[in-house]
Amino acid sequence: MDAGHGDITAAGLGSGISVTSQSGDVHLSAITGPVQMHFSNDHHDFSAHQVEGDITLDDCNDLTLSDIKGKITQSGQIRGDVHVENVTGPIHLHTSVTDLQVAGLPGDLTLDSDDLHVNEAKGQVRIVTHSKDIDISQVYGDSYVEDRDGRIAVEPAGNYAIDARNSKGDVEVTLEPNASASIDARTRNGEIMTEYGLKVNGEESKTVTGKIGSGSAKITLSTDVGDVSIKKGTAFPATPSLPKADVPPYPKTPDLSNAPKLKSSKTLPAEPVTQ
Questions:
Q1: In the prediction, which pLDDT does 152 show?
Q2: DSSP strand pairing (181-189 vs 206-212)
Q3: Domain spans of the chain?
Q4: Cα(233)–Cα(192) distance, integer angstroms
Q5: Strand partners, 191
Q6: Which residue has the higher pLDDT, 3 or 62?
Q7: How far is Cα 184 from Cα 69, in angstroms, rounded to an integer?
Q8: Residue 264 burial (CB < 10 Å; 0-12/13-18/19+)?
Q9: Comparing C-alpha atoms, which of 200, 142, 137, 127 is closest to residue 172?
Q10: What is the Cα gyration radius of the chain?
Q11: pTM
Q12: How far is CA 266 from the centre of its chain?
């Protein structure tokens, strides 16, 4: 589908859709099949709700995706806010600032010019970015996070490996009470705080190495300028929550109110900012 000017809204399509929009936002709902999205001008929003197929897109402004039974692949620039929730397949968002990969997302993720949050992810999470505060919690898999000029906080939902690297900013890890981990943490200019009784070595440059429990999960934490914290948290359920109940793919009367943009209420910056 090639569109000229004005917004595009489509629902209840049974064979997927390919959209090229010159101008105007695009909102899709109840699509059975793959979705391919291209904006000739990246200052427009894209939202898709209840898609039984893969989604592929490039540049856009605000991006809102929910109830997706396929994989999501984005490559280009995102100049607004991102909200993604309840995705069965893997997610890969790639911009000039952020590269984010999540194996599966029963929960949700949000991304804007200052913050990146991932809550309840299934499988591996990999994030490389800068100038953002990163908060990932209830992760049922290994985590790799690389940042600078921001804060990193990771809270796994079990004994999973963590590799968190920050060139300037704090690194915080919160483990379950019955954690089993091998710790290797270091900072060149900062403090190390641990609630597990591990010995801190060094003066200006500080390190902590040791085991918690049997030491099954490898946890590596580092920052050049910033503090490192290793905290005790609370236990999560043994498995991620089940996906939300299915919605019939072909409503007799498409209700596009179920395809709203789940945008953050945060005011966008005056000038576009690539995420």
A1: 98
A2: antiparallel
A3: 1-89, 97-236
A4: 17
A5: none
A6: 62
A7: 38
A8: middle
A9: 137
A10: 21
A11: 0.87
A12: 18
